[in-house]
Amino acid sequence: MKIINKIAQQCSICGSITNTLLCEECSRFLIENRHTCSRCSSFIIMEDLKENGCRFCYNKKLFLSYVNAPFIYAGAISKLIKEMKYHKDLHKALILASFLTGFIPDKIIEADVVTYIPMRKQDEMKRGFNQSKVFAEKIAEKIHKPVLPLLSKARKTQRQAELGKIEREKNVSGSFKLNIKLNNQKVLIVDDVITTMSTVNCAAEMLKNGGAGEIYSFALARDSIYFS
After folding, report:
1. CA nearest 44: which of 34, 30, 52?
2. E strands, the chain, in order
3. How much of the chain, in percent, has pLDDT values that exceed 70?
4. Cβ atoms within 10 A of the Cβ of 196, count?
């Protein structure tokens, strides 16, 4: 897989000189998210398929009409995202955002407006940036659509990475507030990682209640129980 990225002068993992996000050796540890559920974009095996979705989403009410994430949250992508977030690496966020624009699916081009999963102002100031906003701005620029802060955080939540599936849903419930009312516009929500979909689905519900039409979700990576 050839991954051209003119911003990067070095491989983002091993540091070797390259004109790509990753050198040829490190690129072998990118896991593409293929064989996915058409409803929630989870990586699935045949036994996971259900009549309406997969074992991860068939009994779940989703406010999203389309979900896409080109990579599994494991291997090289997991390492890069963690370094970006927990080392407060804006340069790496910009590199990954540019990288993600190379995987834009046709469906999300139908969006009228692009938005992102917000952070609390205090948390964003502490990190120095909101990676979801960085990604959204690059995507919006690529598909020639406006990016707007449609949502903000209504209250403090625990880190989702520390919680199980049920706790994640409770943690994000009611955690967003609508900044701008909509009039049936199609909205694209951009994030870095989709795990249980609790966060993005909660955001989509708020947007839907605020007048949005179809809502799409696009992220760099999708969590999977089959990879760690």
Report:
1. 34
2. 49-50, 53-54, 66-68, 71-72, 113-116, 151-153, 176-178, 187-194, 215-222
3. 88
4. 22
